[in-house]
Design brief:
The structure holds two protein chains of two kinds. Chain A is mainly alpha-helical. Helix content of chain A is 73%, strand content 4%. The longest helix of chain A has 30 residues. The N terminus of chain B is likely disordered. The chains are: A mainly alpha, B alpha/beta. Bound molecules: adenosine-5'-diphosphate and magnesium ion.
């Protein structure tokens, strides 16, 4: 027993150290404005990762996260708050952090669909948009408490997504993908021609009020003044933590096993009693719900919604985050989102070429590291515990 | 060992399956008793795998019927056939390679695991108890086949040699305690000694699980002679002989159709 607990204690260090280093790096990257310095910093970052990989460091980091995910997750949340605290008055950075968190949340939904159940969804941004538009409309015309608006936004995404269920279930493989692409294109056109939803100009979203607290005001604690985005940041963190735990528990249960089984071999799964339709539907709807919830909060955060924010190209961003991070691994999704959201914001030279860059990056990863930057490991139902 | 109980477990009448113009199963008749081990033999392409696929509901029959434990399962889905108590292995191994040994075996345990969403996500204490019990059960089952393998339950199957994969596939089929086990060339790709060992393990399991009936497709006649109570010989989808190994081995038609071909 003592031997076992010793190894566990030892194994938390690589993960913790990596998290702290990554946080410091992120703070520096977010602070620096000079383009040349940013370029140099990115170079240093890539070199460090390649070097660490070469030295075999990531094997122990992986072990660390594998066995001690709980404490490391807590540390990650704490460090995220530290980053936000460091930039407490900076609207731009806090907005960026919210975007990272909510994109991660949405991609977790996509991960449930594609990573676990193998159902492709190229309309992620549409379902994200459904959430955001739900926030705008409900906020304008009703006085439903905003906590419920979040749930309704997710529910709407799941409900409208169920329109796609028949084609998604009936067809195997790529045809289902085409159906979701068609939906993504139609969705944007629908928004553009719909005057009730503001047409191409979109709609304003009034700020969030939770438990009597309006998110519109800057927060003052003593002499410290926090950006109003800080409250949104906290809300995003809480939602993401909830979704992360949900997705993890799902994965580490018989349901996660069902989804893997039907993705990997539908015929064998059928021969062992698995109801393919039930579990595909569950994964697709639950995934869309998470995407919708993320979109709803994003609607509140940005304060306005417009068709151009929810295009097919944005859906591709979600998919590339998933491919880049490591299909099936929520930590990989988080890391990939940080890269995909923050780098183009900081490095203005690549802004215009970001799609080109991401697609090349994704192709590179698919070629040389097909399981993504942080590949999913074999299921461990209760990390650090064995029967 | 033959026919300890006289009641039929599986009754197949005039079962027919066509693929276009090809008759893969032709008016097949078969009666099988509880606890029996039947060898299903015949040259390649004679319809053995097709027979399994029709029984398990993967292919729809074009004629005839299948009764299992008194119920008609001719038009049942694969899911329903599994729930009725039939499980199988596949000629070309169909394990999920990225998943662990334990996960693969649990796929076969589907009907005995709690499938509720709320249970799986929110009642983690109860889930942990079910997990621990299942883990122990799966481990014990694997141990019958290969003790060292039982210590590697959380390793991915993809890294294992063929013989271990075959063993795990049989464990996956056995874990739900089926009444009827269909084994499609379980020893394909194994050496003579490995095959012998595998068959010993299968017999040991059968002695433990009372009333387990087995249909096994196997090419090695020594194996068939040793473990089966009765043999069915197929040729071009038709049953050409049905009897003990000694009987079918002496059969002229069988020698021409099958043994002569070797
Ligand atoms: N899905 C299928 N489509 C068309 N023909 C098939 C299919 N499955 C099997 N067959 C044909 O049916 C015959 C019997 O095949 P099979 O049952 O696999 O034989 P065995 O298992 O005895 O070697 C073969 O001629 C084979 O080509
Ligand atoms: Mg065959």
């Amino acid at each position: 027993m003592t031997g076992k607990s010793k190894t566990s204690v030892a194994s938390i260090l690589p993960g913790a150290v990596t998290l702290v280093l990554a946080t410091v790096y992120l703070i520096v990257l977010l602070r620096v404005e000079n383009q040349a310095t940013i370029l140099a910093l990115l170079g240093v970052g890539i070199a460090a990762v390649v070097m660490a990989n070469w030295l075999g460091w990531f094997a122990s980091v992986g072990q660390s996260f594998g066995e001690r995910e709980g404490p490391l997750g807590l540390l990650a949340v704490g460090l995220a708050v530290v980053v936000a605290g460091y930039f407490h008055g900076d609207h731009f950075v806090l907005l960026l952090l919210c975007t990272v968190l909510l994109y991660t949340l949405a991609t977790l939904g996509l991960n449930l669909q594609f990573g676990f159940a193998g159902v492709l969804n190229f309309a992620g941004a549409s379902f994200f948009g459904i959430g955001a538009y739900t926030a705008a409309v409900l906020n304008e015309h009703t006085s439903i408490p905003h906590l419920f608006v979040l749930l309704i936004g997710g529910g709407m995404a799941a409900l409208i997504g169920s329109l796609l269920l028949l084609p998604v279930l009936r067809t195997r493989g790529h045809y289902a993908a085409v159906v979701t692409i068609a939906f993504a294109l139609l969705f944007k056109t629908f928004l553009e021609v719909n005057d009730l939803l503001g047409g191409p100009q979109g709609l304003q979203v009034k700020s969030m009020v939770l438990f009597g607290w309006s998110f519109n005001n800057n927060i003052e604690i003593g002499s410290l003044e926090l950006s109003f985005y800080f409250a949104y940041f906290i809300a995003s963190v809480l939602l993401l933590v909830g979704a992360f735990i949900l997705v993890r528990r799902l994965e580490r249960s018989w349901i996660g096993l069902n989804l893997d089984a039907l993705r990997l071999d539908e015929t064998a799964a059928q021969c062992f009693g698995l109801n393919i339709v039930r579990w595909k539907v569950t994964a697709f709807l639950l995934g869309n719900f998470l995407i919708g919830v993320a979109g709803t909060l994003q609607g509140f955060v940005t304060g306005f919604v417009q068709p151009n924010s929810y295009t097919f190209a944005d859906s591709l961003i979600f998919v590339s985050i998933l491919l880049l991070g490591g299909i099936g691994n929520p930590w990989g999704v988080a890391v990939a989102t940080i890269i995909v959201v923050i780098v183009p914001e900081k490095l203005q030279v690549i802004q215009e070429y970001r799609f080109l860059l991401f697609s090349s990056l994704v192709i590179m990863v698919l070629l040389f590291r097909p399981d993504g930057l942080l590949p999913r490991s074999v299921r461990n139902y209760f990390p650090g515990w064995r029967p | 060992m033959t026919q300890t109980s006289p009641d039929a477990l599986l009754t197949v009448q005039a079962l027919t399956k066509r693929f276009g113009g090809l008759v893969a199963l032709d008016q097949l008749e078969l009666e099988m008793y509880r606890g029996e081990i039947i060898g299903l033999i015949g040259p390649n392409g004679s319809g053995k795998t097709t027979f399994f696929n029709v029984i398990t509901g993967l292919y729809g029959a074009d004629g005839g019927n299948v009764r299992f434990g008194g119920a008609d399962i001719t038009r049942s889905t694969p899911q329903a056939v599994y729930h009725a108590g039939i499980s199988r292995t596949f000629q070309r191994s169909r394990l999920s390679l990225p998943l662990s040994i334990f996960d693969n075996i649990m796929i076969g345990n589907h009907k005995r695991l709690s499938q509720g969403v709320w249970f799986n996500i929110m009642r983690r204490g109860a889930f942990r108890a079910e997990f621990a019990a299942s883990f122990e059960e799966a481990r014990a089952l694997v141990e019958v086949f290969d003790a060292p393998l039982a210590d590697r339950m959380l390793e991915p199957v993809g890294g294992l040699p063929m013989i271990d994969r075959r063993r795990i596939e049989i464990c996956r089929a056995l874990i739900s305690r089926p009444k009827l086990l269909l084994l499609d060339e379980p020893s394909a790709g194994m050496t003579h000694d490995e095959t012998k060992q595998l068959m010993d393990d299968i017999l040991e399991i059968r002695d433990r699980i009372q009333e387990l009936s087995i249909v096994i497709v196997e090419h090695e006649m020594g194996v068939i002679e040793r473990i089966t109570d009765r043999c069915i010989v197929l040729n071009f989808g038709r049953k050409i002989a049905d009897g003990t190994f000694a009987m079918i081995a002496a059969d002229k038609q069988v020698q021409e159709a099958y043994l002569g071909l070797q």
